[in-house]
Amino acid sequence: MQLLLFSYLFAQEPAESSLERAPTVLERVEPMYPSVIEEEGIQGDVLLEIELDDQGRVLAANVLESLHPDIDQAAIDAVLQFRFTPYLDANGIVQPAKLQYRISFSVKKSIQESVQGTVRSGDGIPLAEVILLFSQGEEFRTVESGPQGKFSLSDIPSGEWNLLVQKDGFDTLQKNVSVTEDQITILDLVLAPLQVEESNTSADFEIIIEERAVNSELTERFISSEEIFFLPGSNGDVVKAVQNLPGIARAPLGVGQLIIRGTAPEDSTYYIDGGNIPDVFHFGGLTTVVSNEIIEEVAFLPGNYSVRYGRQLGGLVDIRTRPSLPEETKGVISVDIYQSAFY
């Protein structure tokens, strides 16, 4: 593609006096460049004689010096659309006028892209916002890749250039690029992901934490063995202590049966360390069959528990024993009106 340039020049101006003023261009229209200029490279001047009325409008234009018939006509068509300031004579009165006007046509090659290409990752994905720095001695050119990873650089002198390609998360790419005059250098640049070096150092010690997995339910309340002894109305009994929790009604005569959310006592169930037991009470439901000394905590699930606990309508009491033996040997003897116990 070629870029066409033109200029305007008055060839003759009226003589100046105290009030005389020559016409000047107010409105200018660019010529429609004929294709012959691009095809044949013709350039030069067209000299026109322009006739103006007393308002500065162009009435006619004639060719005095021709360049090419097509170019001459393009110059006339453009000048007929010009508008000038009116000509003032020596007395300052507007008058019709004739003047000569020169239009110069020249041909100049447009700037071509010197380097173009694409930046992508190793798996073929185009990379946008990649900085490309071309350097040659003290001369630099910088360009950034677009959304599709494409880039182009114009007006870069021919010769050997050092290219530096940088983007966060990728290794820096450096290579030499040869740029040749009147040719487009096409580059296909591939960036490798940044490799994170693994540390070879090791710690002098390690910490191992062991903890029993807890199966959390939607609603689950816990009572520790220490709390059981101080809860009112439980007499230190592990299951009766659950009667102090919300949603549970006390059974008559102080027995340990649980009435959970209005269900019958037989609608609830009991577990010891995840294993179901048919009856957690001695005869009459006055005391529990499990000694408080071996219990770590009691979990109470009023409802909405997992199917692994069965299909009971009421709640669930899960008694969890201590995971290890005590560090020192001790015994407990208990005697009351309901039972005698030794542990």
Summary, kept brief:
The chain is mainly beta and 343 residues long. The chain folds into three domains: 2-109, 2-Layer Sandwich (TolA/TonB C-terminal domain), CATH 3.30.2420.10; 113-191, Immunoglobulin-like (Sandwich), CATH 2.60.40.1120; 221-342, Beta Complex (Ferric Hydroxamate Uptake Protein, Chain A, domain 1), CATH 2.170.130.10.
CATH class of the largest domain: Mainly Beta
Largest sheet: 5 strands, mixed
Query: Biggest sheet, strands in spatial order?
Result: 16-21-22-19-20
CATH topology of the largest domain: Ferric Hydroxamate Uptake Protein, Chain A, domain 1
Instruction: Give the N-to-C terminal Cα separation.
Output: 105 Å
Count of separate structural domains? 3
Q: Which shape, going by the Cα principal axes?
A: elongated
β-strand percent reads 35-45%
By DSSP, the count of extended strands is 24
The residue ranges in which pLDDT falls below 50 over 5 or more consecutive positions are 1-14
Structure classification: mainly beta
Global mean pLDDT: 76
Description:
- The structure is a single chain.
- The chain is mainly beta.
- The longest helix is centred in the N-terminal third of the chain and has 11 residues.
- It is built from three helices and 24 strands.
- The protein folds into three domains: 108 residues, TolA/TonB C-terminal domain (2-Layer Sandwich), CATH 3.30.2420; 79 residues, Carboxypeptidase-like, regulatory domain (Immunoglobulin-like); 122 residues, Ferric Hydroxamate Uptake Protein, Chain A, domain 1 (Beta Complex).
- It is elongated.
- The strands form eight sheets. A five-stranded mixed beta sheet has the order 16-21-22-19-20. It has a four-stranded antiparallel beta sheet with strand order 1-8-3-4, covered by helices on one side.
- Strand 3 and strand 4 form a beta hairpin.
- Helix content is 6%, strand content 39%.
